[in-house]
Structures are given as structure tokens and as C-alpha cells.
Design brief:
Layout (H helix, E strand, L loop, with lengths): L1 E6 L2 E6 L5 E5 L4 E5 L6 E5 L4 E5 L2 E5 L5 E6 H4 L1 E6 L2 E6 L2 E6 L4 E6 L2
Antiparallel strand pairs: 1-2, 2-3, 3-4, 5-6, 6-7, 7-8, 9-10, 10-11, 11-12
């Protein structure tokens, strides 16, 4: 699995080959090593936020990789898009729009 995170303002690749996990820049230079709990699968990103998933939890990160909010997939559903400072999820037959604080901004039927 390859996912990406921001580190010190750089978009980086995370290669999940061992635990703990190494973080590389886009040129393949190792930046740091993260604990398994600090990284996850990249779900989506924008210029303002990054959404990752690890187990049953979504992490909302700022561009520097700082966790802004952690939310259960039971609450969120499945994240389907990230744009600006919001992300969109589908839960059953509903589409929800969330902000970086975890506040639900809008809900509409999926069909």
C-alpha cells in the first residue's frame, strides 16, 4: 500500500512495508519514521485538509500533518470526496458534508 501525507509543507509518499512506517518525499528521500498509529491510508486531500483512514477511524489533518479531528467510520460513513476545508461522505442512502471540526454542514438523499 502506498499513501501520502504532508510533512513540513511537502507532499510525501508513505510506503507501508513495515512497522514503524517510514515517510519519504516525492523524490524518495526518507524524511522521518512514524508510529503505526500516526499514519493511515490516504482517502483524499485538498490544499487545506488531508483525510486518512486507519482501521475504523478517519483522521482529518492540516497540510503539515497535524491531526485536527478523528472521527469514527460509524459516524461518517464512507468518505467520497475532499474539497477545500470540507469533505463529503455517504452513509446508507444519505450524503453528508462535514467541516474540519467534525460538524455536519449539510445532508441530502443520495438518490
Amino acid at each position: 500500500m502506498i499513501s501520502v501525507l504532508w510533512k513540513n509543507g511537502y507532499l510525501c509518499k508513505h510506503i507501508n512495508v513495515s512497522s514503524p512506517k517510514s515517510l519519504y518525499d516525492t523524490n524518495g528521500k526518507k524524511i522521518t519514521t512514524l508510529s503505526s498509529s500516526a499514519a493511515g491510508e490516504l482517502i483524499g486531500w485538498s490544499g487545506e485538509i488531508i483525510v486518512t483512514k486507519s482501521g475504523g477511524w478517519y483522521k482529518i489533518l492540516d497540510p503539515q500533518g497535524k491531526t485536527l479531528k478523528t472521527m469514527s467510520d460509524m459516524t461518517v460513513g464512507t468518505v467520497i470526496s475532499v474539497s477545500g476545508s470540507t469533505f463529503t461522505s455517504r452513509s446508507g442512502s444519505w450524503i453528508h458534508v462535514w467541516d474540519v471540526t467534525g460538524k455536519k454542514l449539510a445532508t441530502r438523499p443520495a438518490n
